[in-house]
Amino acid sequence: MTAEVAPLSGSRCQAPRCMSRAGRADAKAGSSSGAMARGSARRARVPGSRVPGSRVGGRGAQGPRLGPETRVPARAEYRLPGAHPRAPGAWLPSGARTRPARLAGVGVAGEGAESPGPTGSCLVPEAGPSSAVAPARGAGPPDARRPLPAAWQHPFLNVFRHFRVEEWKRSAKQGDVAVVTDKTLKGAVYRIRGSVSAANYIQLPKNSTQSLGLTGRYLYVLFRPLPNKHFVIHLDVSTEDNQVIRVSFSNLFKEFKSTATRLQFPFVLEARTPQRDLVGLVPHGARWTFLQLDLQDILLVYLNRRYGHLKSVRLCASLLVRNLYTSDLCFEPAFSGAPWAKLPVTPMPREMAFPVPKGESWHDRYVHVRFPSDSLKVPSKPMEKSGSPPEAVLLGPGPHPLPCPVASSKPVRFSVSPVVQTPSPTAQSSQAPLAPRPFPEVSLSQERSEASNVDGPRFHSLEPWARVKASDVHTAAAGTHVLTHESTEVPVALEDAGSCKALWTPDGTAVVYPCHAVIVVLLVDTGEQRFFLGHTDKVCALALDGSGSLLASAQARTPSVIRLWDFQTGRCLCVFQSPVHVVCSLSFSDSGALLCGVGKDRHGRTMVVAWGTGQVGLGGEVVVLAKAHTDFDVQAFRVTFFDETRMASCGQGSVRLWRLRGGALRSCPVDLGEHHVLQFTDLAFKQARDGCPEPSAAMLFVCSRSGHILEIDCQCMVVRHARRLLPTQTLGGPHPQKQTFSTGPGIAISSLSLSPAMCAVGSADGYLRLWPLDFSSVLLEAEHEGPVSSVCVSPDGLRVLSATSSGHLGFLDTPSRVYHMLARSHTAPVLALATEQRRGQLATVSQDRTVRIWDLATLQQLYNFTSSEEAPCTVTFHPTRPIFFCGFSSGAVRSFSLEAAEVLVEHTCHQGAITGLTATPDGRLLFSSCSRGSLAQYNCADPQWHVLRVAADMVSPDAPASPSTLAVSRDGRLLAFVGPSRHTVTVMGSASLDELLRVDIGTLDLASGRLDSAMAVCFGPAALGHLLVSTSSNRVMVLDAASGRIIRELPGVHPEPCSSLMLSEDARFLLMAAGRAVKVWDYTTQANPGPQVYIGHSEPVQAVTFSPDQQQVLSAGDAIFLWDILATTESDQSFPGPSPACEAGLGTGQLEDAASRASELPRQQVPKPSQASPPRLGICARPPEGGDGTSDTKNSGAPRTTCPASHKAFTPARASRGPHSAKGTSLPPASSEWLRLKAVVGYSGNGRANMVWRPDTGFFAYTCGRLVVVEDLHSGAQQHWPGHPAEISTLALSHSAQVLASASGRSSTTDHCQIRVWDVSGGLCQHLISHHSTTVLALAFSPDDRLLVTLGDHDGCTLALWGTATYDLVSSTRLPEPVHGVAFNPWDAGELTCVGQGTVTFWLLQQRGADISLQVHREQIPETVGAGELTSLCYGAPPLLYCGTSSGQVCVWDTRAGRCFLSWEADDGGIGLLLCSSSRLVSGSSTGRLRLWAVGPVSELRCKGLGARSSSVFMERELVLDGAVVSASFDGSVDMGVVGTRAGTLWFISWAEGTSTRLISGHRSKVNEVVFGPGESHCATCGEDGSVRVWALASMELVIQFQVLNQSCLCLTWSPRCCGRPEQQRLAAGYGDGSLRIFSVSRTAMELKMHPHPVALTTVTFSTDGQTVLSGDKDGLVAVSHSRTGITFRVVSDHQGAAISTICVTRKECEDLGVEGTDLWLAASGDQRVSVWASDWLRNRCELVDWLSFPMPATTETQGHLPPSLAAFCPWDGALLMYVGPGVDKEVIIYDLSQKQVVEKIPLPFFAMSLSLSPGTRLLALGFAECMLRLVDCATGTAQDFAGHNNAVHLCRFTPSARLLFTAACNEILVWEVSGR
């Protein structure tokens, strides 16, 4: 819809210069060459700016204003801007019409003027009560921009006839050109065919030196392409300046190409078959095509040139052509002859018309292609009436993008392809719809969604032009709530609630808008969101006071509730019920002391209420000041900004001024004159540029649905000016129609907003227009996809916010003329959703007939598939391919390719609407169900995914529509659904569709007296075997999927039935849609304490699901909400699979190196036994002579025997030199140590049985690296027992709890593993023993504590016995095969049992004096147990022995008979731990499952022997932990205990409550950085596990965790103290993908994500003012970015080629450096270079101060592994910097920046791996690869060395106060207390 100026009679009309016509879009961009702009944003359209194809426009510099006082003489001539003066004596040919310049945004309607263009609008002064009509049409000046059309070319020219093509004298033919008779047209046509298009053609004129001289604007080509062929059409077009442009169309072209002299457009032919190419051969059944080319617009839009005339035409093979025509008229081919002459279209001349048999439609037989298309802007009314729109539209690169400009750094590809649809020869109604266009062809969706199509549905994809700011970070923190709203942008539905406008905040930095029941505050620059939660229904009105402190909101349904909020904190101040039942508008006074509301009372009368709100912020209440009823309609109501006692309202036929005085509201009407019949929609007060005007000067602007804008003097209450927005073109044709000021189809204005300089108007034609306050011409305009429902100008007047009824929210930035999209949404409720894990995508289907694909990481809309006739019902992704499936209301199931954005295959085996759609996890099978009860199975392994089976009457047709109608188990074996009746649930085999189980849930519901019916089904994790069913009686039943028995029941889950439910992968949370709320149950708690309820939806929730990473919850209904899971689960927890490969001990880069990481993974196959002959068992009291009872397999050449895949034993760290094995080390005396170990953070999940707990005494100990940590569980106080030279592998506590034994691996300085025996009471090591040459796998004390047994790992295979009196070795033997566990019989101290590879070995200890002999008995594993190895054991009630296997079996042995009599499958993974009391057994597996078994009846089953069955053993409880279970200690009744996992976590287990509580937790892999908050109350760490963790420094308890999946966090920094208030503390973290994220500590949310580097970051730091972030990467680049906006404004590449190892920033204090700047910073790189810089980032200054280079060391000194180059400024002397790194000598170099020389060197024993300088004392901390820490006193030159770590000390950091020192080695963190010195 466009607009025109309708001036008063005799007024002079002039307009801005000509601009191009633009298609349907927000904004368009172009270049002088006509190619589309590929920059970061599309520019706005500016009339007069000569920018082609732009969409947001403005008034040009040469465009004169229109004024009512401007008069011209009656006979005076005038001309359009840019036109040449008319020559004297010029005359117009008979019948010729003049044409003014084509205008973008402004038209001229007057005497002799045609429509200037299809876009734009202008406001005109409207006449008073006796206004004159518009002047009559007459002759006018010609269009001087191009030659006058000759009379012989008007109204059209038959080119073939005029040039007598059949004679071939003035035309030429080449190749196979013949005249044939066409049956469709019933006449002769020319056939051009041949394999080479260039050799077979018709050319006009004959010679290239001649010219056709055809000046008609439109060229009509009547042709039909030949099937399975290509064709080419060449046009040579001459411009006004005689430049010849070749314009070509062909289906040979793959993409649009443009040069200064050539345009190539691909011609896309679309067949109505599921399989076709967009560009390529002509399909069968191609129809005759009426190709209409607007030559003027083609040149203007794509090349910014003016059309002169058509020079030549060449039609190349292969096609049939009937004729060519030129004309200045735009003909409609569907209308021909006199009957259509009175319609507002130009009918087709009979000579040009195609024959249409009686009773048939033109569009059913032919194709109309118009290029560039006008139908995208103004759909033709006759086409809508006929129900048969054109089947083809030509799309250009510029005119048709979506209505928001692209804000992207990547080039945007647009389609310029003509699209022609041709029917398939076998087309039927049930065929697949046309495949969607590839997403660059965005306009097609809008075109076809607006008109019906008789040929079937059309699906078209939309590209996500909206670039929303979003977070891919999931926040986890301790708390009682599970979910929270994510503080980032989500795809939400915007509310089109009439007066409920989107608002600007007073500072103009954020917008406030409602999303159903949620109020959203969106920061427009960062994309950060805040939410106001509390409403239970849709928010229908919003108001914000002038200071931005108070926000008022009202909800829709009666009785209306109004809430007042503290806008800054988000706290609800008060809630009160309004006397107005339905509030439609709210308005605050500028001070916030008065709130007015308008709505309807219970009788339907309009009521205005005024509330006093001045005391609300001070704890007072809201009081009603006045109420008034009125019989006049009120659509908008505003309190004036200059006097809070005055108001104004407008509505149907009335504009009234109100005043509050004496406790009463009174109003008086404005005299509207002839405008009293108008329907007014919005109003705004005029503002003065120099402050608020006096009331006497107040002007009020109101707008109406008829396009009027009235300017009202509030003092005189009269209309000063009346203007109207009119269309410049009638629908369907280019000719203007005669209109008066009071009649005609004005453009409806829905909203307006004022600034001191301009007026913003939003209208129903989808345009946002900006006008000066005198409305002389359009300044800017932006077109949207739907009607604009509200506009709002920002307080500074530089941004204009607009919202549309189609669910779009954005703003126009007037200085840059760029439109920014803020949010997109569905326009109707969302019916279903699906998530995809590999690409992180979300699919949603809605009642608005669209299927939208979103990116879960960025929350951008990727695709939009639209159906015009049938509604999508359900959707699911293919698990492994870029494909999704969608079911429709017609019964069709279609697959869509996300790569090609098209329909792949369609199946129509269903007769009813699709109700369920799901695929197996492996993607091999797909299932669908319909409303008529049929069930279909598809084979998705086949590209055609053909139908395997269709079964009728399977699914209940009476079941309500639900996304959970069908469910597939997570192992893909089972299929469950509600059916055949709604009272039964059926479980089938997914592959065979054999019925396995049918459960009748139709119990009598006593409340309703009806049988219970099933509503939704859901499978739990495969290991649980649970099937969940929600019922109509508001219950959730948990069934055993194998037997159908009821395991548990959740009664009364909600007053309404649950339509959707989902169980998390770890089986911890049950999620369900409960009315308008989301409910979350703790599934692991059997006591059912009740769910947590989360509100925000205003309509029933249709679907709920977990995100693929299980860290978020998605709920869909009226909108799509993303919720963060804040439960204390590990972000990388998985169920039921094994723990991830991020094991403790991984070094730098191993997360990215799969090869190095593979060595740490469990082996995938059980190793074969060694081929060497095993040694015989020797029974002796001492090792044999010449050895220690072991053989060195490394030297003997025998193959090494490895541990089983399911039982990963202790993995020792890489052997390194001892901490004190080199010269120069200095161990301090205990009394004078500078450091004291204060705390240890972490637990070694690498060990096995390396945690002990005794509940009766409270003794609790575990290992971390080389330390034994003894911790008081009540106070958290720690004791540390050092001494081991390597990582501790296992622990054992004596039965008396007086002695603790610990064993470690072998170090590089010892030949044997060390075993230490500790006195528990004193914490002293009493004995140090060694015997095993390989890692000690297990320790165990005998029941009487007289013996200690030690077991070597699978490399040593050594078993040793020690006497605890003196801890002498009493016996040792070499075992014939690997043994994985050993245990004493608790009932007999003389019996010992080992389990291992295929056997159980029973040892009997016999003592004769001082000697002990062993008798051995071995038993093979029975075949009934299955293949595998025994990996764990424990004794039960005598004489039972329980053994776990690597395949998940538990077998029970009778130790007296020496036989296995019972086994059952206890887990999917290997059983690594067993603990037993008399009747209860605990099993822990490599999958992280901890299970409690009832084994009381097992003792009775022993008498049955091999006939015993495992049915008597059942599982009581199950908990899923975050990794493989490696250690456990329980009380005697196995009710509670402590369990350790390989993830480095210690859990407290309570079986009675069914809970697991985290006790100890650390990073799973290497810790990369430790930083401290300015107040030193908290510290933060980051690791290669992708987490950023914030700890309370006093207790070292985890407070906050930020987790980014599938990324390593490599560097971290905390904002400095000077950066804002304490609550604004922020963290900056760098990741392996080159991204940098800014986290808010106070709000536990991500503020910003930027991507300054293409490779992994290595270091990051803030500037001293906290406003700038400096980051370095492994390629040697340093990026400088704004911390608030994320913009990288400088890149320092001086270190390019070597990784940046550190960046240090300090405040510049030394003034004699010769440079200016506020900051001094340095960068050190891996090539031993350090650069020092002075910078002032606010002024964008950065100067090099100094450059240091250090020599490379010899390779032998570093063993080929260079230590890092580290440098730091000296905190006690700003002119000094310290450097350590590889060099000729091992030393610390101190460099003076002022003297430019090295002033001191401090020798070191090793090359340093880490460096830290104490800010308070002159201490220097250095970490070494030799597991040693050195502290150097720089004042005295003395040093002390400290041990404690098990790996290279790669990190050391002093706290700001220098009271603590943090050191890290791999994933272990030690906290040292620095003694006062």
User: pLDDT below 50 for ≥5 consecutive residues: which ranges?
Assistant: 1-149, 272-278, 375-499, 691-696, 730-743, 1129-1209, 1213-1222
Radius of gyration: 41 Å
Number of strands: 134
Shape: globular
Q: Characterize the biggest β-sheet.
A: 7 strands, mixed
Question: What class do helices, strands and sheet pairing give?
Answer: mainly beta
Average residue pLDDT? 76
Distance between the termini: 82 Å
Strand content: 35-45%
Q: What's the total helix number?
A: 9
Helix content: under 10%
Strand and helix map with partners:
Layout: E1 123-125, E2 156-158, H1 159-162, E3 172-174, E4 176-182, E5 187-193, E6 201-204, E7 218-225, E8 232-239, E9 244-250, E10 257-258, E11 262-266, E12 268-271, E13 289-294, H2 295-303, E14 307-316, E15 319-327, E16 331-336, E17 346-348, H3 362-365, E18 367-371, H4 381-386, E19 419-422, H5 443-450, E20 474-477, E21 483-485, E22 503-504, E23 510-515, E24 518-523, E25 529-532, E26 539-544, E27 550-555, E28 561-566, E29 571-577, E30 582-588, E31 594-600, E32 606-612, E33 623-630, E34 636-639, E35 646-651, E36 654-661, E37 664-669, E38 680-685, E39 699-704, E40 708-713, E41 718-725, E42 749-754, E43 758-763, E44 767-772, E45 780-783, E46 788-793, E47 799-804, E48 809-813, E49 818-823, E50 830-836, E51 841-846, E52 850-855, E53 861-866, E54 872-877, E55 883-888, E56 893-897, E57 902-907, E58 914-919, E59 925-930, E60 935-939, E61 947-951, E62 966-968, E63 974-978, E64 984-989, E65 995-1000, E66 1004-1005, E67 1010-1011, E68 1014-1019, E69 1026-1031, E70 1036-1040, E71 1046-1050, E72 1061-1063, E73 1069-1074, E74 1077-1082, E75 1092-1095, ...
Parallel strand pairs: 9-11, 12-19, 13-18, 16-17
Antiparallel strand pairs: 1-41, 2-15, 3-6, 4-5, 5-15, 6-14, 7-13, 7-15, 8-9, 8-14, 10-11, 20-111, 21-78, 22-23, 23-24, 24-25, 26-27, 27-28, 28-29, 30-31, 31-32, 32-33, 34-35, 35-36, 36-37, 38-39, 39-40, 40-41, 42-43, 43-44, 44-45, 46-47, 47-48, 48-49, 50-51, 51-52, 52-53, 54-55, 55-56, 56-57, ...
